[in-house]
Amino acid sequence: MKYFLGVKNANELKSLYRKLCNELHPDKGGKASAFIAMMNEYNSIKDSFNNENENENLNDEQFYNLLQQLEKLTNVRIEFIGYFIWLFDEVEGSMYQQKEIIKSFIFDGYNSARWTKVKKI
Question: Nearest Cα to 116, choosing from 79, 87, 92, 90?
Answer without folding.
Answer: 87
